[in-house]
Amino acid sequence: MDFPATQPKPAADGKIIYYPPGVKEITDKITNDEVVKRLKMVVKTFMDMDQDSEDEKQQYLPLALHLASEFFLRNPNKDVRLLVACCLADIFRIYAPEAPYTSHDKLKDIFLFITRQLKGLEDTKSPQFNRYFYLLENLAWVKSYNICFELEDCNEIFIQLFRTLFSVINNSHNQKVQMHMLDLMSSIIMEGDGVTQELLDSILINLIPAHKNLNKQAFDLAKVLLKRTVQTIEPCIANFFNQVLVLGKSSVSDLSEHVFDLIQELFAIDPHLLLSVMPQLEFKLKSNDGEERLAVVRLLAKLFGSKDSDLATQNRPLWQCFLGRFNDIHVPVRLESVKFASHCLMNHPDLAKDLTEYLKVRSHDPEEAIRHDVIVTIITAGKRDLSLVNDQLLGFVRERTLDKRWRVRKEAMMGLAQLYKKYCLHAEAGKDAAEKVSWIKDKLLHIYYQNSIDDNLSERYHCFWICTVFFFFTCRLLDASLDPNAVKALNEMWKCQNMLRSHVRELLDLHKQPTSEANSAAMFGKLMTIASKYPGKAQDFVKKFNQVLGDDEKLRSQLELLISPTCSCKQADVCVREIARKLANPKQPTNPFLEMVKFLLERIAPVHIDSEAISALVKLMNKSIEGTADDEEEGVSPDTAIRAGLELLKVLSFTHPTSFHSAETYESLLQCLRMEDDKVAEAAIQIFRNTGHKIETDLPQIRSTLIPILHQKAKRGTPHQAKQAVHCIHAIFSNKEVQLAQIFEPLSRSLNADVPEQLITPLVSLGHISMLAPDQFASPMKSVVANFIVKDLLMNDRSTGEKNGKLWSPDEEVSPEVLAKVQAIKLLVRWLLGMKNNQSKSANSTLRLLSAMLVSEGDLTEQKRISKSDMSRLRLAAGSAIMKLAQEPCYHEIITPEQFQLCALVINDECYQVRQIFAQKLHKALVKLLLPLEYMAIFALCAKDPVKERRAHARQCLLKNISIRREYIKQNPMANEKLLSLLPEYVVPYMIHLLAHDPDFTKPQDVDQLRDVKECLWFMLEVLMTKNENNSHAFMKKMSENIKLTRDAQSPDEPKANEKLYTVCDVALCVINSKSALCNADSPKDPVLPTKFFTQPEKDFCNDRNYISEETRVLLLTGKPKPTGVLGTVNKPLSATGRRPYIRTTGSETGSSVNSELSASAGNRSREQSSDISETGVSENDENPVRIISVTPAKTEPVKNKEINSDQATQGNSTERGKKRTATASGTENIHQKTEEKSVDETGPSLAAKTRRGRPTKPEPQGTTAKNEETNKPPVRGRKRAAANQESPGSLEAGNAKAPKQQDTAKKPAAAQRQIDLQR
């Protein structure tokens, strides 16, 4: 090969370096890019050279030496090092068999350098991978590393090479890479003088289970390497085990503690590797150390029991010695021997005869765990193949159904039941097998004659559990054929298990923290929580178990594995057995502590749900999707089966998320996402959200398919789908900011209030995006809120609502514009919850907007274009929004008392559904301790709810909340520092303040109003005073007395406001004194009053005045309760700047023709029937809102003189009113309009004020109340108060002395028009 002349470059040693044509000098004075460029040409030159090119070899020898200089070997540039390594490998090939490098140190540096470059093989997607592969191929083909045999410290190079190759091998490498690695390593082993212990360790370490699980490809590489070099390496392996097992020199290797694991793996690879090792194991079986015998038994159990093993026949002495361990004195050794038997029976039926006699003895073992495992061993083999167990072995199981321990009996019964089901019910092995186990059914039925409580409770419960799980797995329709209660029970079972698992996990986390007083207190609280799930002496046992956990690190690790998300059912079984084995005491046959621990372990162990179970469920659902299931034959449609299956999987995705992580499962869920059923798609998205945290890294194909679907659902799906899609993107993708921006930007630009039906989904998506990623979207969202949400959407009414008089409409009848406004309000809340700060004062503006919506009854624009049912929706949304913001501390601080009171009055809304839904939301937030304690005071207003069932529901909510708070304080010692926000009794000052500002409470000396206040106070105090815990009665009395020494912080300088506050305090003191004889004791501590509602007590201020007279006290305590009026309005007049207090409408303010034209279908009903009205929203809200009736509550005092008089007055007019109803029924829809027109004519400007909403109306004169009850239709809730008939004098004649006063009140001029300043 002729080369054109090149300019020679002098080397450092004086020799001239010739570079290939076109290659300039390579020095440290040029850039890295230029070095790489020139080296590539050098690499190309050496690649094209062969060993016969003597001229070129001589010419480029200086260059070859130059490439081994420090400049190249220590070059920081990765590409430079790779190219130099390729050159050096080619140089070894070209100059073979003699290398051009004579210095041993230089050779060592070169090969260590080349070895380091082989790490680049790890990344197969690297652009340079082909060069790394070329380097490996060249080294393997030439066997370049054999040169190192001449070096004294060649072992260091080989060890580094082996470790590098084992560390870089992965599943992305093809067979060629593995083949070259094997060629390279096997040549070193087979052509060397021997394998040193360090080099052997670098191979064997890949067989250890921990490394094997970490890198399966490295294990496979080591496995093939050992097979290929078995003849050479076997003496080295024998020497290693001899040093460790016989001579006890564990220091010879770091792998000494893993000898039994290594023996197992080496035996599985090739038994010839252990020809000299097996006799040593017989020696170890006879060791005096029980733990050592146990380790050898575990090892030999795996060797004898493996499927293809013939060790028992090849080495009979060792087999007989092993069988002798069934009678070992050490319990764990016997236990391990019994566990081995099932594998041996299944894999080697010919050995069953040897095992039977030993199992017979062990079935009577004094140790319960061993007897239990004998049953498991036999049943496991029998379930595999009934022919594997003879009648004698089945007889052992039959005997154990009468065992003295219920755990053994349970296992025997469950095992026999499984055999019977398999071979008799399913006839899986023919008639002979069925006849062999036909006796089982009789034996199982006989068990119920036993009198043991364990049999009656524990075993039957376990039978039910197993049957439920079995049905769960075998039902093709998943839970579609289960009734809702059964589905709920199944779901609750998993949720309770998951909750208990979380408690145990938190307990283990506390064990990892340093010991401190706070840690001990937290641990004690967690132990009490766990102990509360069990009866008897559970607390003592749980404390003892916790102490054992603290002392035994291995036990903690077993428990951590048991509750880890990746724990399979099989692993759980092993963990439970291992923990039980460690806690068992052979000398103590009855151990209640162990029983409790087992019960705990059984409850937290994943005994039926793991990845395999989820996969089976998904396969069943796939059959329904593909139409191959027998759903129709079972009487359930495929769509129903799919929906039910997904709902079930959704619940499991919360409790077992890691079990879903497989491509097959996610492919099935993607099919569900493409279905037209909205519920199915929504459930599928939620499952992805709960389980897809590793999709991005492990399943890129699923990720690429899922992203566009989620985008589509977030933009054009249903609102629920949009919410779940946004949360799913945020939960499982690392580039969530980019993904959410791709949704946020087009949606924010396309908002159009003129098409409200297309607004709902975008508003949902935008709201959740701004909540989840506030740092990115809070600022852009602010302009959307200001310019579109408030200005364009909420402050405009584009459509006119249907004036049907209904207070509530079904969801499908709500106008799109109102639905959009509701979502807009939710968007505001989510936006603020995302920011979690009020630096821009956006929260103040939002709260003013929500308050204005409540004050305006839901009609923010006051254009009267919105229907009453839509107004109800908006009031509910506004009240719920304030309550949601209050859950965030930074917003709770800025909510004014006036705004809190407006929010509270929603629970007295005129619309039944508003009250119901608001109360549910309130209870849900309180029970999770999300809301401040003051919001629990809202439930006191439920005393005025006219519906008996609603009052009962509110009372149950109070009981639940108070119970949870007290239990939380008991179980969390740290909670004592936050008693002001947790102690239920501290709700009293909030309740007193709220009732003092009740818009119905206008006259502090009015007995009727005071009776209202007393009923509300007692509604709360009755629950609080059920128990006098820690002298709480005296504490509440002290709080009430202390309030009288302060002023109302809301209106500190208004005498009337403070008078009302002190009056309520006196009513509270009156109630507490009358209901408790223990309230006069000393208070356990001085109560702290909330400064937001009460001023600090003044030093010289003394308030010993009684604000209610003695006569009033008697009336409050002994008089009959005031009749509860039907809810009329929601928003009460509050003393706020810029707002006009609402005028209370009286009977004479409404048109005189109203009552005469109302229907009277309930004219003949008694007062008692009217009191127990049904809790149905339709009957309450579907009527015209002008028809309001006062309803007497069911609980009344014995004095009924006024009721008798009222009834007599009513009977006289019932017939006449009934006739009028018949004549005017057809014009009912126009009554409201006519009434308002006539009222304006008669009362003048006073009716310009809006009527009050949200409370039961005050009772009218007694006669009028009774008259309305008899003449009108059944009680309904409206916004406007029913008026007395002004044209008929009977309406006043039957009334009491208060009627003229009410007429006078109606004549008072109205206040100025209210103005709402949203920007203030």
Automatic annotation (TrEMBL):
Top-level taxon in the UniProt lineage: Eukaryota
CDD domains according to UniProt: PDS5 (cd19953)
Localization annotation: Nucleus
CC terms in the record's Gene Ontology section: chromatin; nucleus
Comp. bias regions, Basic and acidic residues: 1231-1241
Composition-biased stretches (Polar residues): 1145-1164, 1206-1215
Keywords for this protein: Cell cycle, Cell division, Mitosis, Nucleus, Repeat
UniProt KW Cell division keyword: yes
Ranges where the record places region Disordered: 1127-1320
GO terms for biological process, alphabetical: cell division; DNA repair; mitotic sister chromatid cohesion
The protein's name in its UniProt record: Sister chromatid cohesion protein PDS5 A
The species this protein was found in: Manacus vitellinus
